[in-house]
Amino acid sequence: MRQHMFGDVAAAEMHALDMPNAWDAEALFPANIHRAATQALESWITAQDAFSRKHILNNFASSDGNGDARAGAICASPSRKHPDYYYAWTRDSALVVLEVIAWLDDNKLDYMLKDELKQRLDDYVEFTRHLQGLKNLKYGLGEAKFHMDGTAFRAPWCNAQTDGPALRARAILAYAQHVIKQANGDTTRAHELFAL
Please, which residues have CB within 8 angstroms of residue 181's CB and are 6 or more apart in sequence? Predict the structure, then answer.
């Protein structure tokens, strides 16, 4: 009799009942159930992807001049009360930008959407340039968050977040590489956009 985690008696009872092995996915989930579950999951992922992308883009301040935010600012959340997260967090914004840059390589996106994404990324570059020109920041480049209008956050909060500047630099460099790649190696637009 084989040893089982429940002891010899439990193992014998399981064998006698001809119960499937707990790791035998085919016995527990026949192919038709597995296929249906996989299709449902894939359908949900597709719907969630579209939903998430839409809401991510809604958090970008646009260059249309509407609202109280400077173009290129990306809010962590539109929530302004309980909790108030309507700020451009350096780390969060950079992570969003890295994700949006990856979307540009999606061949399924139409050109109009790609142009919109590029404009938002161009605005982010300008917003970042503006932030880095601000004077008398408490934590310098390590400043964790800014107001969405591009002014410094001066209220008490916390210490610097030192991963934010590195992620921001990574995001800016990734976008610069994308711009140069799309121009087949021509760096003219990159020089203009990034003021190199």
Answer: none
Q: Which residue has the tokens 């780390």?
A: 91
- With beta carbons less than 8 A apart as the criterion, state whether 66 and 139 touch: no
Length reported for the chain: 196
CA 195 to chain centre: 26
pLDDT in tens, 57-105: 999 997 766 678 999 999 998 899 988 889 999 999 999 999 999 999 8
Q: Which residues, 6 or more positions from 31, have their beta carbon under 8 angstroms from its beta carbon?
A: none
Cα 14 to Cα 48: distance, rounded to the nearest angstrom: 41
The sign of the CA dihedral 42, 96, 145, 67 is: negative
Contact 101, 140 (CB under 8 A): no
